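We now fix the convention by which a protein and its fold are recorded. The integers have meaning only within a learned vocabulary of local backbone shapes. A record is reproduced here so that you can trace the correspondence yourselves:
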Amino acid sequence: MITVAEARRYYEDADVVHDFDHVLRVLALAERIGRAEGADLEIVRAAALLHDMGREQAEAAGLDHAAFAAERAREILAAHPLAKVEAVVHAIAAHRFRTGPEPTTLEAQVLFDADKLDAIGAVGVARAFAHGGARGQRLWVPIEAVDVARWTEEGDDPRNHTPVHEFVVKLSRLKERLFTPTGRAIAEERHAYMVAFFKRFDAEVRGER
């Protein structure tokens, strides 16, 4: 439905955490999960390639980036069969962690899982610190100082947010939100690595290691 070369141009202004490298990692994971789960790979590939396009433009306008990308995908893929286009649109619209809709098709669940897997493990740690560095965040706060209820109810405060907040509030919870058996299996090792990293990071900052 769309090639890698065609999709690349939609990410020219993307930030480092959601750039085309992220898209290619999600694509690789989505293909891996999709093959194992028996998903329609044509839909999975198109959804993975288009899922984060226009993100900065959408957020600058106060729009949900997933809904924004889904509508653009509908326009870009208009020449293809309607059922396939709508399957791609749903997968893109349903890939966010914090907001709905829930992914109700296998292809949407595959994209959701692939996108969340890229947020944990070694890559997830790197992305958390890249995101924080780009926004001038502190490197560290004590893990026990993060009030999960406050951060989930009131949202992210960019003045106080750190990679540690991102780990406690979001990244540490992703493993439990995945849908496919293949995605959950991949998540186990990535989650364990990430937990060990932040535990070690905390100990080093305190001078204990």
Notes: The mean pLDDT is 94. Residues 119-209 form a domain with the Methane Monooxygenase Hydroxylase; Chain G, domain 1 fold (CATH 1.20.58.1910). The chain has two domains: 1-97, 119-209. The two ends are 51 Å apart (CA to CA).
